[in-house]
Structures are given as C-alpha cells and as structure tokens.
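Continuing the series of single-chain predictions for the mutant panel. This is the parent chain; the variants come on the following pages.
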Amino acid sequence: MTTTEPLTRPARLAPGARVAVVAPSGPIPEERLQAGLDILRGWHLDPVVAPHVLDRHPDFTYLAGTDADRAADVQAAWCDPDVSAVLCARGGYGVQRMIDLLDWDAIRAAGPKVFLGFSDITALHEAFASRVGLATLQGPMVAGIDFLKNARAQEHLRATLFEPESVLTIASGRGTALVPGRARGVTLGGCVSLLAAGLGTPHARPSARGGLLLIEDIGEEAYRLDRILTQLLRAGWLDGVSGIALGSWEDCGPYEEVRAVFADRLGGLGVPVAEHFGFGHCEGALTTPFGLSAELDADAGTLTLDEPALV
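Parent structure:
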C-alpha cells in the first residue's frame, strides 16, 4: 500500500444496521456510554456493546481492561458478519499495547466495514490502511463529550454515515492558510504524536508521500510538537507530502506559539498548509475520512473529496 492509492471504501449505514461499540484504549464512564448508545438508537441503528467495554485494567487505571480482552473485543466485532460498523467508545491510551494481538489476516478476510474513532485510535487507522487497505473515519466517538453534547459534531457524523454524498466538501468555516495554495492527494493522518510513535512499528506506512496529511493533537506543548514534527521530518516521513490540514490543538499552549512551530517546521516543505480546520479534540469536531482522494484548498479552508467516504 502506498499513500497515493485510494483505499477500499466500506458500505454506508442504513436504518437497522447493527454497529458494535468497542473500547481499544481508555476506560469508559458507563453513563456516557449509555447516553451515546441512546443517540445511536435515535438514528435507528442497533448498537451492541462488546463484552469488555466497561472493564478496568487491574493494575493500570488508564486502560479499559486487559490488552487481550480489548483486542478480543475488536477482533470479534470485526469478524461478526452481522456487524456493519465498529465504533470506538473513546480514545485515551492503549491501542499500541493491543494492536499486535489482532489477527489481521482474519480481519482482512472479514471484508470491509465502517471503522470510526480518533485520538489514540490513530494507530488503528494506520493499521487498517497498511494491513487491510481500508478507508476509515476520524470522528467523534460514542462516549465522547463532543458526540453527546454538540449538534454539529453529531449531524456531520450522521450525514457521513448515512448520506456521505451530502458531505463531499468538508469546511470548518474558519479555516485559514498558513501556507496558501491547493493540493491533491489521498487523505491520511490523525493524532500527530501517535503518528510519530508509530514510526518503525509493523503497522506504520513508510511515508506520507502523495498524501494530504490531516493532523491534530491535545496536551502537547509547543516544544513537544516541535520534537514530534522534527522526528517526522528527520525520519523522512513527510518527504513528498502533497498538503497538510491542521485540526485542533487543545491544551497545547498559546496558539501563537504553536503556530510559530508549524510555520517553522512545515513551512519549508513547499506545500499548502491549512489551519483551524475543525477536526480532532475540539467542540463540534468534523468527521474526516482517511484513504480517499481529495483536494485541499488552504485559502478557502476546504477539503473536497472525489467521491463519498462510504459506498
């Protein structure tokens, strides 16, 4: 798989579709999970909760159950022929601990279906791209505050799942150009610290060459973002990238400091860079597909897909 190739798109959801909710990373508050399930039922979906979603790891409170149990939930959900989508309940930390326990041959054989999540789930997006060749969705998660409380986040996700042709152009409404211009490529990305952490692992793609890179993060101060981007640059991972869209940078310090890092580390790539794009850890986060051919217009703050995210 190369970044320049569009990936296989799964089928859109229809009323009555069964969707599995999994927790590959951090622990889930039960009341938030139930509220998220109620929203899914309101969309006429049939959500089923994986057996270990509400577990807590016996030693590490930041994990939703043991690595083996979290992996088993993802594996069983994906390989269930009655399940049309696998939706993550939240991020946190933990995917890197369980991802090598998954049977990727069996996952590939089970065929394409919708996969949704963001933040720590970035590692799974990369694995589905590199090991399965599957397009996936970065978007609000079932037990996430934004999904539960924000109408814009809910509606954009619902439209993407059921009527993907209605959201071919993704626009934050306040996007601006850090580096002006237009670029074409295949979308990829996620939480930039997870992309850097994945370098050298079995599921990481060799580079972002030919891609439109959509990145965001939370809780990383300017010097840490500098370190992360410098690592990606030194590894050659950003060589040949076509364009970059910058999402949210919650709790990363004053934005003028963060912006200066982006200008310094990304400005020399000679490609369009759009900022304030409205995906990731922010209020009203937009759902963005990975693995699709698209055009980024940094000046207009738009990402226009060549075809709907789901078939």
